[in-house]
Amino acid sequence: MATYPAADGTELTYDAHGPADAPVVIALPGGPARDPAYLGDLAGLAGARRLVVPHPRGVGRSPLDPAHASWWAQAQDVQDLRLHLGASRLVLLAHSAAARQALGHALRFPGLAGLVLVTPSAASLVDVASDAEAVAARRADDPVFRSAVAVLEGGADTCSAQAYDAWQRAGAPAGYAAWGPAEREHAAAGRWHLAAARAYLAGPPPDDLRAGLPTLTVPTLVVAGAEDALTGVTPVAALAAALPAGRLAVLAACGHYPWVEQPAAFRGVVDGFLAEVLPG
């Protein structure tokens, strides 16, 4: 674990895995505001790359300052981390809600070698109907899945940080295509931080965010899970299509966490992309 200075003077934390002299991949955790422990090493991605995982403001060991903790404001934190690392070229990977931060960063700060958006929360960025309900309907006879969906549809319990974390955990089975031992173990990793989640989602996105997507020419891999009942597939596919250099990979028998549910398929598409844009 190490720290780097943000532009406002705050010391923010990051974890680094893999060879120090290897090409750099910065991985942004989603949630929003879930402890980055849930990313693990992304199915061994750190074996051939320098995997750098920042702790967003108010998450893990980074302090919370709501004035600088929206997803748009934290795009600057990514730039500060890039400058601290001194890598001339790197890839920015983002999971779920962090896709907004990654896209906002890429629009403001050019020079990335590539973007990898893993099961991104894309519904607010595109004008297509989500198929998430249709995906969920395919598992209507699964009582564990059905109960988890009911918890999530009941709304977040925000009476305390502990209650919010418990609500997220009760709804966790809805995020996977199956609920086996690996999925249950993964769901227990990395708690959610209520205050940081509120700050992350505070305020509307910039008016020009969606308008800027067709101008974003950085090579971008967008990974969807064919059984992702949280995001669906259609918005994720539409986001990939909206990016001039976007490409889509849909992984079968996979929900919201491809590196856990389909690690070999996940590594196959990500490693292939990285070999193109960030050769070792």
Features:
8-stranded mixed beta sheet, 34% helix, 8 strands, globular, 280 residues
Summarize the model shown.
This protein has 280 residues and is α/β, with parallel strands linked by helices. It is built from 11 helices and 8 strands.
What does this structure look like?
The chain is an alpha/beta fold and 280 residues long. The protein is 34% helix and 16% strand. It has eleven helices and eight strands. A hairpin with a 5-residue loop joins strand 1 and strand 2 (11-17). The longest helix is centred in the C-terminal third of the chain and has 15 residues, at 263-277. It is globular.
Give the SSE map.
Elements: E1 2-5, E2 11-17, E3 24-28, E4 50-54, H1 74-85, E5 90-95, H2 98-108, E6 114-118, H3 132-137, H4 143-153, H5 161-170, H6 181-187, H7 194-200, H8 209-212, E7 220-225, H9 234-242, E8 246-251, H10 258-261, H11 263-277
Parallel strand pairs: 3-4, 3-5, 5-6, 6-7, 7-8
Antiparallel strand pairs: 1-2, 2-4
Helix pairs in contact: 1-2
Number of E strands: 8
One letter per element, helices H and strands E, the order comes to EEEEHEHEHHHHHHEHEHH
Cα end-to-end separation: 24 Å
Structural class: alpha/beta
Mean pLDDT: 96
* Strand order in the sheet with the most strands: 1-2-4-3-5-6-7-8
Helix content: 25-40%
Morphology: globular
Unreliably modeled segments: none
Percent strand equals: 15-25%
Biggest beta sheet attributes: 8 strands, mixed
Number of H- or I-type helical stretches = 11
Q: C-alpha Rg, in Å?
A: 18 Å
